[in-house]
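Dear Dr. K.,

Following up on our conversation at the group meeting, I've run the structure prediction for 2,5-dioxovalerate dehydrogenase from Billgrantia pellis. I'm pasting the input sequence below exactly as I used it, so you can double-check it against your construct before we proceed with anything downstream. Let me know if the numbering doesn't match what you have in your notebook.
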Amino acid sequence: MPINGQMLIGRDAVSGSSQPIHAVNPATGETLEPTYVGGGKAEVERACELAEAAFATYRETSLEERAAFLETIASEIEAIGDELIERAIAETGLPRARLEGERGRTCGQLRLFAAVVRAGEWLDVRIDPALPERQPMPRADLRQRHIPLGPVAVFGASNFPLAFSVAGGDTASALAAGCPVIVKGHSAHPGTSELVGRAVQRAVETRGLPEGTFSLLFGSGSEIGQALVSDPRIQAVGFTGSRGGGTALM
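The predicted structure tokens came back this morning:
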């Protein structure tokens, strides 16, 4: 599967206009191709626009539809095969066994969330029936359940290029809950992120979901990151990283 050095905004592959991003093999010092170009406020705006539009439809998907979507993502990641592991080795210097295990963990997380979604207990549905004869005053019919918040921004980690990255636990949980996701991929492993991002993109298309259900951006934390977390359409943020990096986003 080709790595084109592009961001994924909805169904489109997009080149940025900001600073270039080069992945470097930590074992050899070699600069890896292709060169990525970070996005800016225009790309954040487009991704947020699509995510907000997608939310109206994606939040109404059935539990079975969401579960099948998560399972399709896992299958698409596995279908990449050894190319994903080889690229992750080149970008991170981590050993093959570690990355193969992390790929299994990532797909396992997605399938676990699918099982949880299907079960439905997480909705915490509560129904208090009406008591029209209650004294001193009647009680209305009261119903409660967990509902999706809205678009979620996820920040990939440097040291877990799969399990805490593009399709990691933060992304899986948000998609399971009915929330579109915009991922800011980590600049240390953009090729790995693009491969996984394209797998998610294919799953969105396969399951017939709105294109804004998922986007993948690259760029500096001070530009892309702060623009994401400050956008009023973003309702939650998943971040794994240093204390300094987290407080900078706040």
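Two things stood out to me. The chain has one domain: 7-249. The helical segments are 41-58, 63-80, 82-92, 96-119, 169-177, 190-206, 221-230, 243-249.

Best regards,
J.T.
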